[in-house]
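User: I'm putting together a teaching handout on how sequence relates to shape, and I'd like one worked example. Could you take DUF3445 domain-containing protein from Ruegeria sp. PrR005, show the sequence you're using, and then write out its predicted structure as tokens right after it?

Assistant: Happy to. First the sequence, then the structure tokens directly below it.
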Amino acid sequence: MKEILQKTLPYDVLAPRPLPGIQPLNMTEWLQRDEAFDGQMARRDSLIATKPETVLAMSEEARPAAEELLDAVLAAAYPEAAARVERPDGVTVGIDRSQPMRTLGRLVQEDFCILQKQGDEHVLTAAVLCFPASWTLEEKFGRPLVSIHEPVASYDADVARRVQRLFDGVQVGRPLWRFNALWYADAELHQPRSIHNRRRVPVPQDAGFLRSEKQSIVRLPVTQAVVFSIHTYVIARADAPRLAAH
């Protein structure tokens, strides 16, 4: 079985920042390829093939932004690509521009959410979400940013306003990022959960795995859409004794 877990995190989750915890990101560090690439990509391929209605969504208004995002990811991760790419795990992926979100989901470990400004808010108009952390694309698609974050207890009105300002203000070529960290009972990457069925958060002593997301916010230069990308790390508790003690 290909490994889906990482052994370490590329940042210190014991140095949290007040919400929303945003910091500048070097664009060269936007997309990450780590030791779990082969296993995570195999899981993504399987989900996209068997559950496309669960992990993929795109409105027609988002198509130009999705195509622009596909070009940006290809330029960053596979600069020599033409009609197809060969991933580091040896899998060949055809570049199907008629299905940009599906293609994106098979190229890199990151999930992608495209948000576009409608009125005063950014609305989720396209996504490939293979590894949701206790939310569902079906419930969030087509909804504004504030509604997407409804289940997060610490995401109050003040934080919501600050996050909306961040999405308004993020500049082309000057992306931002943050991280979270939550304990989970199992290592499953695909963790959809309805807002009507909230997860019981285990204490570290009862949980086997630490799940952390590197979340990046990137402005696309042509369509001006905002991309929210998610790189998922899952670390066994045995590999994170320092983290488990907190």
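A couple of points you could highlight for students: The chain has a mean pLDDT of 88. The CA atoms of residues 47 and 130 lie 7 Å apart.
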